[in-house]
Amino acid sequence: MSVTRRSALTAALSLSALFASPLVSAQDPAPGLGDLQGQDDHAASHTLAARGYVRQSGSGDYSNWWNSRDRRCVMVRSDRGRIASAVTTPAPDCGQQAGSQKDGVSDGAKVAVAAAAILGIAAIVHHAHQHDDGDHSDDPRHEAEYERGYRDALHGYRAEADSGNYSDGYGAGLRERSKQVPWQSDNGGGSPVRLDDLVGARAAGAESELRARGFTDRDAQQRDGRSVVTWWNARSRDCVHVATGDGRVESIRAVDASNCR
């Protein structure tokens, strides 16, 4: 295996190790709230209130609810007016101290509010558990940069930077975008997949996305100072060359399936 390919695999595996646990746990309904799925938003709000939950914050289709009796924070996602999921999320996402017996706004939540003020927005969109360490940064400026990157990725903009808090936020936004808008191939074996949204993304994040979309890497080469990795999707029978330079995806080109044998 070439050094380039080993590096690509190491980056992808590192990302998987960092985020595998949160992504798996995020699929499990919060205790006692499994019946919320499918309810309309209005009825779900009444159900949550009746079970001791108070709405703490919200942005777009997401809202956070706190139950002071159970010391539990849940994140509720709505899709076209109906509840798609209700999962447990860290207490700071509800402005509470994790493990504390006394309600109050956590330091992380205060930093998040300060970051929103720096950006001139009502509230930040990303949650504490979307950070590598499971909590917001201690520096509002760093948190603001993370949020900028997160929003850019979430809305499909190309990244502005390749390092630092902005870049970390951009990677988290790419993962969240993938969860909110699941990638699908319309082919039953023939039509080319759409991967144009990955052009311009950081190489490590793009590799993670390619794997999530059913691709496996088959080969890696250096061409004209760029890394070109061959990726194969067995389900859709798509073979593509992904060229990266300076740590970012520069192009994704469909090639004949024989290149992936």
Account of the protein in words:
- It is a single chain.
- With 261 residues, this protein is of the alpha+beta class.
- It has three domains: 3-12 and 192-260; 31-91; 106-182, no CATH class.
- The protein is built from six helices and eight strands.
- The strands form two sheets. It has a four-stranded antiparallel sheet, covered by helices on one side.
- A hairpin with a 4-residue loop joins strand 2 (62-67) and strand 3 (72-79).
- The radius of gyration is 20 Å and the shape is globular.
What is the tally of helical segments? 6
The number of E-state strands comes to: 8
Instruction: List unreliable stretches of 5+ residues.
Output: 1-27, 182-191
The gyration radius over C-alpha positions equals: 20 Å
Q: Report the major sheet.
A: 4 strands, antiparallel
Q: How are strands sequenced across the largest beta sheet? A: 1-2-3-4
Provide the residue-averaged pLDDT.
Answer: 74
Summarize the structure.
With 261 residues, the protein is α+β, with helices and mostly antiparallel strands. The protein has three domains: 3-12 and 192-260; 31-91; 106-182, no CATH class.
Please supply descriptive tags for the structure shown above.
globular; 3 domains; alpha+beta; 261 residues; four-stranded antiparallel beta sheet; 6 helices; 34% helix; disordered N terminus
